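Hey Z.,

So I finally got round to the iron/sulfur cluster thing we talked about over coffee. Here's the setup:
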Amino acid sequence: MIHFNQKKCTGCGVCAAVCPQQVIAIQKKQAVMQNYRSCLECGACRQNCEFEAIELTKGTGCLYAIVKEDILKITPKGSGCGCDDDQEEGCC
Ligand code: SF4
Ligand code: SF4
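And the result:
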């Protein structure tokens, strides 16, 4: 699930530009979801938002967790899907 913090969002458009699925649009200088069903939960929008205006929590399509656990067979440490085990900030 993705949530935009409207107080932090400047409408810079970086998240919309990096999203591979065209999920995000900029309307009235705010990032908004326009195509939520296509979101892969890849985390690219959050990683590239320099204003920390995006919160991303684990949902059914956490791509990072799918690659790590189902393809690479790496068991996550601790709780959650393990996205932040080897990064400063996980994708969810
Ligand atoms: S990158 Fe961050 S600040 Fe820029 S439009 Fe997206 S959410 Fe808003
Ligand atoms: S998590 Fe990935 S697919 Fe979903 S909105 Fe962000 S950049 Fe797009």
